[in-house]
Structure formats: C-alpha cells, structure tokens
Amino acid sequence: MINIPKGTKDVLPKDAAKWRFIEDTARKTAADFNVKEIRTPVFEHTEVFARGVGDTTDIVNKEMYTFLDKGGRSITLKPEGTSAVVRSFIENGLYNETMPAKLFYITPCFRYERPQAGRLREFHQFGVEFFGSESADTDAEIILLAKTFLERVGIKELELRLNSIGCKSCRAEYNAALKAYLKEHEEGLCPLCRERMEKNPLRVLDCKDEGCKKITAGAPRILDYLCGDCRAHFEKVQSLLTACGVKYTVDPDIVRGLDYYTRTVFEFVSSAIGAQGTVCGGGRYDSLVESMGGPPTCGAGFGLGVERLLLLMENLGVAFPGERKAEVYFAPMGESAYAQAFRLVYELRRKGVAAETDHAGRSLKAQMKYADKIGAKNVIVLGESELESGEAEVKRMADGSKTKVKLEEIGEFF
C-alpha cells in the first residue's frame, strides 16, 4: 500500500463541508469589504520568495520545497501567499489600475517543517492584500476584515495584539540599539540568533528558544524608537479600532516572522490550540513591491492557515453547517420502474433538487435502509402499480407522513 506523504492530509467527504463553509465565508466576507479574488501558481521562481520573504527567515533558510526543473531553473513550491501576489501585481501592471487594489486568495502552501497539530507541510492559506494606500485606515480595515471573518465562522474569544515595528528610518536606530544589547548577551543566544543578530537583529525577538526569550525580555522596545510619522500612524490605527469598539493589546514583542513587514503588525491569538496560539497574523509592508522590482507602492495584508483555523473551531466546539442531504430518494422495483426513477432523478437534479436512486440492485428493504443512511428527506417507492396509476406516495422520513403526487408533477412538488 502506498501511504500519503508525511505532513499532508486528505480531506475526506465527511470533512469537506467544513472546508466549504470556511471558504464560502472567506469569499463572502471579502466581497462585503469589496475585495477581489486573485489566483497565483502553486510554484514560482525561487527568487520570488528569496527576495520577498527574506533570506534571514526560517522559511527561506530551512523550509522551502525548492528544486531545479528540466530547464535548470530554480523553482519553489509556494510557502506563503503574499510574495506570489506581489509578483503578479507587478507583472500584470495592476498598479496602473484604480488604487487601492484590494485582493484575496485561498491557496495551498508548502513548508518542510516538523508536522504537528494544525501545522502541516502542505497547508492552505486565506490571505488578503491591499496595495496603494499608506493611510492608517487601511491597516484598521484589514484587521476588521480578519475579525469579521473569524466571528462569522464562530470564533468569538480571540485576543488582538498590535505593535508597530516602524519604517526604515526609525528602525535603523532601533536595530543599532538592539544589536548593541544583544552583543552584551551573545553567549546566551542560540546559534541561529547569533547569526540573525548580524543580519537582522529584529528577527531575534521572534525566536521561541527559552534562553533567547529570557534575554530579549529585557531588550530595548521598538515603540520607544518610532519616528513622529510612525508614531502618529500607529496611534491612528488604534483610534480607528477603538472607534469601532474593537479591543486590543499593544504587544511590543510582536515582530512577525517575515522580513518584509513595516509599521503595523498584528496577531489574533487563542489559547485553544495550545502553544501555537496565533490564528491570524499580518501587517503593513510598504517597501515589498519596490524590493521585488515594482514601483514604490504601499501594501498591507494578513494570512491565516485553514487547518489551524479548523483545529481551533473543533476545539471550541463550533457548530459547522451540515452536509447537504438528498431531498428525495427514489426506490424502484423492477427494470421499468428503475428507468422511470433514473429519468425523474435526472429531471430533478436539472432543477437544482438533490435527488438519488439505487445503483446496486438492492431489495426494497435494503433501499429504505440506504435512504435513511444517506439522510434522504423523502422517499418515493416506484413499482408496477405506481407506473400504471401514474401516481406515487412521497414519504417524509422525519415523521412518516405520506402525500400522493402524480409522477408528471413531481418536479413541481419539490
């Protein structure tokens, strides 16, 4: 027997309805915020992610599925959605269209990391990206979109955490202060953070190593180094959220795990999925489009993993909509009756009615059990007498009540 690759998961029919509910809710919420869908390839040139995500991140250094294609080109399976959308935004000249450009995607992503609850090597991401607006209301709107979506799928108890990591100007001063502090405690840092300290000291704050966390607890805070414009921007984000009645906590430890973020960063956190508590994260990235070869264009967005969201919903006992059941099951007795049942099922399906009939030559008793097992709401038995009279009884399975219906009028009955 050939088994599924480690870190991947089949979505079986019993779970597919849950996925559709999340995806449909994501699309509905995006539409309510006037956000349009974009779809990008599953794989891209490796440079897209090396330049977009950043070469100091674990994703680029350790986790990407990268290979040479038959033409000798370096290709990478998409590890996250933003960089691919930025590539498409630039390549297709979307910056020439009306701004802001508001885009969303639901896409598979791939990272080679240790599988655990809610974290797989193939996972799916719902993400939103806004381009062309530097105002704080864009940041607030993205946060509100994420909050609205999470509430609509049934998650109420979430903590919103905010931070600002400044712009290139104020971050340069902060990086110098942070690097000086980390140098004093270099011996206590993990080997990876000693490397990060030289290339991108901000990334050390995102380390999960307990020794590093103890050291960074006393590190300088970026909020103390914000320039006037970044401070005003962050205060405006907070005031807009407050005006909308959204509670939040300013958390200076949030830096996010990707190099492209600037100014606002945020996370929605839950304790219901264990130590890996971040359900959704995002922020602003005003230099990403330009760094990938496009014109200077502001950007902001968020991403969330569908598998992690499903795990949270299940842990919280969120009620999912049930799978659609057959409205009617035809139980034929004999070849003539089967031909009639087959035709009627087809006619009803063309009208948008979920209908089913036997395909296994079952006895009437076995068909009734099957109809009950698939959750059919109504059953119609078709035999010689029904064909002769042109009438049949519709049995309502919920209460056993029966209604006589002419065969030629069944299409109008349902």
What's the topology here?
Elements lengths: L12 H20 L3 E2 L5 E3 H7 L5 H6 L2 E3 L5 E4 L4 H10 L9 E10 L11 E10 L4 H17 L6 E6 L3 H17 L6 H9 L10 H7 L11 H16 L5 E2 L11 E8 L8 E7 L3 H4 L7 E7 H10 L12 E5 L2 H16 L4 E3 L6 H10 L4 E5 L1 H6 L1 E6 L5 E5 L3 H4 L1
Please provide a brief summary of the model:
The chain has 414 residues and is of the alpha+beta class.
Write a structural description.
The chain is α+β, with helices and mostly antiparallel strands and 414 residues long. The chain folds into two domains: 13-167 and 227-315, 2-Layer Sandwich (BirA Bifunctional Protein, domain 2); 328-413, Anticodon-binding domain (Rossmann fold), CATH 3.40.50.800. It is 38% helix and 21% strand. The strands form three sheets. Strands 1-5-6-11-10-9-7-8 form an eight-stranded mixed beta sheet. Strands 13-12-14-15-16 form a five-stranded mixed beta sheet, sandwiched between helices. The radius of gyration is 28 Å and the shape is elongated.
Report on the biggest sheet: 8 strands, mixed
What is the total number of structural domains? 2
Mean pLDDT: 91
Give the helix proportion (percent range).
25-40%
* Side-by-side strand order of the widest sheet: 1-5-6-11-10-9-7-8
* Uncertain residue segments: none
Q: How many β-strand stretches?
A: 16
CATH class of the largest domain: Alpha Beta
Count of helix runs:
15
So, CATH architecture of the largest domain? 2-Layer Sandwich
What's the gyration radius in Å? 28 Å
Global outline: elongated
Which fold does the CATH topology of the largest domain refer to?
BirA Bifunctional Protein, domain 2
Termini separation comes to: 45 Å
Strand proportion, as a percent range, falls in 15-25%
CATH homologous superfamily annotation of the largest domain: Bira Bifunctional Protein, Domain 2
Structural class: alpha+beta
